[in-house]
Design a protein that fits this description.
Radius of gyration: 22 Å
Largest sheet: 6 strands, antiparallel
Number of strands: 19
Helix content: 25-40%
Shape: globular
Number of helices: 16
Distance between the termini: 21 Å
């Protein structure tokens, strides 16, 4: 058998130990914006990695094509009808806005990219935009690629245009004057510094911006207000995706009565991010029954790992558990997610009661990182920030352990460089 030659990206990921991000300057910039008395170096020591991740052009093209294919699937009435039939009624409310910051997370293995999940309020975009101008050309390959990338100012302009477009899609013709960034206890969220970066960007464009707990939204007649200030658009970072909690009753009312533009919204979560959808996107027969064209079916069943709903058959699942990753259908991040080989019988009993999907394990790529004690291997997850089917920004997350965690020394967000295959 002929040995497979390593690509330029694989070689660089295993041998390049150059720094690609000027971490001191980046942290200084974020500290200026946040105004915190404690530097982000101390509060978030592993938020950014200094090393880049290298990606083959063919893999990037496949990722972009699969994202466009999913966008077309989501637009088909047959898919929407099937998916929304199992979602709460609020997900079927008319909402023409597309939803900001879809996050498509990929693992890149020897066989190419595999789509692990889709998120509707993917975190990290503003942080990675801030990092863009602090990236260093660590070699000629990186220098050539960086020269073609948009600057942070250009990326910020793209983000502002996206929020303006959301308002227009929702039928508003007046300028966007005010935004509320809402979450549950936003000041205690790990990515709170990102909220402050977003606020700075919006206010630099003349848009009044509030960072608010979802519970403090109020109605004043037909207006949503924060501290008495009317809000045009709500950037929803809450993980109460269907707005079901008592604290979200004003946000729910605002969405149902179309009193403010809410983005992302419950319908976007149901159509893109409910992990049960991966059972359709990974199955050729299901896609064909929905009327999806064969080229899209071939692409999606290659990129999306086989995924199934877990319902009973516990002995079969238990026997084969090492081949599968178990995730809650409506979960987010890594909460409640388990590698099969890490499961105990007790936890597995909860999994097979229902509400979980099993996804065929697609091992992440690896990135070598030089330390004072030698070389360590970090796992790689690549996130594509997407709007209306197009990739606006990419970033890698480097980590050790079962899932991305921002607790690994040397890990965190990292730039992604596309390099030609040798």
């Amino acid at each position: 058998m002929t040995a497979r030659h390593s690509s330029a990206a694989e070689t660089l990921n295993s041998t390049c130990h150059c720094a690609a991000t000027d971490l001191p300057r980046l942290r200084e910039r974020i500290d200026r914006v946040t105004g915190s008395t404690q530097s982000i170096v101390h509060s978030h020591p592993n938020l950014f990695s200094k090393i880049p991740v290298f990606l083959e052009p063919g893999h990037f093209a496949q990722m972009a094509a699969s994202i466009r294919a999913i966008e077309q699937v989501v637009k088909t009435q047959s898919f929407r009808t099937k998916v929304l039939a199992h979602a709460p009624s609020i997900a079927s409310m008319p909402a023409p806005q597309a939803g900001v910051f879809l996050g498509y997370d990929f693992h890149i293995g020897a066989a190419g990219p595999r789509l692990i999940e889709i998120n509707t309020n993917a975190g990290g975009a503003f942080l990675n935009v801030a990092a863009r101008d602090h990236q260093i050309a660590c070699c000629d390959v990186a220098s050539e690629y960086l020269a073609r990338l948009p600057t942070s100012k250009q990326l910020e302009s793209t983000i502002l245009e996206m929020f303006q477009r959301e308002r227009k899609l929702a039928g508003r013709t007046s300028p966007l004057r005010s935004i509320a960034i809402v979450d549950d206890k936003p000041g205690s969220q790990f990515l709170y510094p990102e909220f402050l970066l977003a606020k700075q960007l919006f206010e630099s464009a003349g848009i009044r911006t509030h960072i608010a707990d979802v519970s403090i939204l109020k109605l004043d007649g037909d207006r949503v207000v924060v501290d008495g200030d009317p809000v045009d658009l709500i950037y929803n970072r809450s993980t109460d995706f269907y707005l079901q909690s008592p604290a979200a009753h004003v946000l729910r009312d605002a969405f149902e009565r179309n009193l403010a533009v809410v983005t992302p919204h419950p319908g976007a979560f149901a159509l893109y991010a409910n992990k049960q959808n991966l059972t359709l996107l990974s199955d050729a027969d299901s896609l064909a029954a929905l009327g999806i064209d064969k080229p899209s079916i071939d692409l999606l069943t290659q990129v999306v790992p086989p995924t199934h709903c877990v319902k009973g058959e516990d002995e079969t699942w238990w026997r084969d558990r090492k081949d599968w990753f178990f995730k809650p259908e409506s979960g987010f991040g890594s909460r409640g997610a388990y590698r099969g080989d890490k499961l105990t019988r007790r936890v597995f009993a909860d999994v097979v009661r229902g509400g979980y999907i099993a996804q065929k394990i697609a091992p992440p790529g690896e990135r070598a990182h030089a330390t004072d004690d030698g070389t360590m291997s970090l796992k790689v997850d690549i996130r594509c920030y997407v709007y209306e089917g197009e990739i606006q920004l990419m970033a890698a997350r480097l980590y050790q352990g079962q899932t991305t965690n921002f607790r690994t020394a040397g890990g965190g967000f990292a730039p992604v460089y596309i390099v030609q295959t040798t």
